[in-house]
Amino acid sequence: MARLLEGLRLTLRYWMQTEVHVYAFSVAANVLLSFFPFLIVSLTLARFIFHEQAVIGAMNLALRDYFPDALQQFLLRNLPRAGPMPAISILLLLFTANGVFEPLEVALNRIWGIHTNRSFVKNQIVSLGLIFICGGLALASLMLTALNQQSFTAAAALPKWLGAAIGHGITVFSILLFKLAAIPFSVLILFLIYRFLPNGRPPLQRVIPAAIGTGLLLELLKYVTALAWPAFQQKLSREYGVFQYSASLIFLSFFASMIVLAGAEWAARGHRMDAKALEESYAHE
């Protein structure tokens, strides 16, 4: 218990550093710029495989799981409808979407004591690779949900009483499937970021537990947000007016970024403690 409290104290001390807030707000600002382009690319690619209504239903489920009601309704209302998108547009949107990894790399390098950042070109190459892999994982989750939503569309052609029963079962199964897939997908994405985004190779024995713990904390953040957000949303509506949804996305991204950075700092701190213990053991021999 004392060790846990000491770890929490050190994490809180880390969170109190001004540069950590700078990194987190920088990541949040890039999320604001890149999030909607990422949604557009995901929807466009998913529509090549699934029916329009199934894709919209899957996106609705995903946004409802990650964001408060008012924000997810705003995003859904403004999603682009069916229509072809040139390949060059998709590539440009992906290039925009990878901007979040630039400040995150600097923050992770600082945490791990790596003094040299990648050049802008190298960062963009690594970031583009991560956005393809992480985006592919997110798209796979979306497609699994869309597959169930497509089954719901097929159930609508059945007799009303049977279609309603099957449709309700499919909806419940879709939610359960998405919930079960969300944490493993999040953990895998966090592992890729923690392991490959820094300009070095953090040790696996520290990266894997950090990815798992951070993934669980981000899942917990969803429920805390769902409870606390209605009152906070009123404040944002009064003070930010038409910018309330942008402010909402920035605040949510900031809180998530602080958790992601804390997970990396916990892993790096543990690695330094392991190295120190190893040095002391050698000194006593």
Give the arrangement of secondary structure elements.
Layout: H1 2-15, H2 18-47, H3 52-66, H4 69-77, H5 87-97, H6 101-111, H7 120-155, H8 160-196, H9 204-240, H10 244-284
Helix pairs in contact: 1-10, 2-5, 2-6, 2-7, 2-10, 3-4, 3-7, 7-8, 8-9, 9-10
Could you walk me through the main structural features you see in this protein, from its secondary elements to its overall organization?
The protein has 285 residues and is mainly alpha-helical. The chain has one domain (2-284). Helix content is 85%, strand content 0%. The protein has 10 helices and no strands. α2 packs antiparallel against α5 (87-97). The longest helix has 41 residues, at 244-284.
Q: What is the beta-strand fraction? A: under 5%
Radius of gyration, in angstroms, nearest whole number: 21 Å
Largest sheet: none
Query: On the 0-100 scale, what is the average pLDDT?
Result: 78
Short overview:
With 285 residues, this protein is mostly helical. The chain has helices at 2-15, 18-47, 52-66, 69-77, 87-97, 101-111, 120-155, 160-196, 204-240, 244-284. 85% of the residues lie in helices and 0% in strands.
Pick out its properties.
mainly alpha, 10 helices, 285 residues
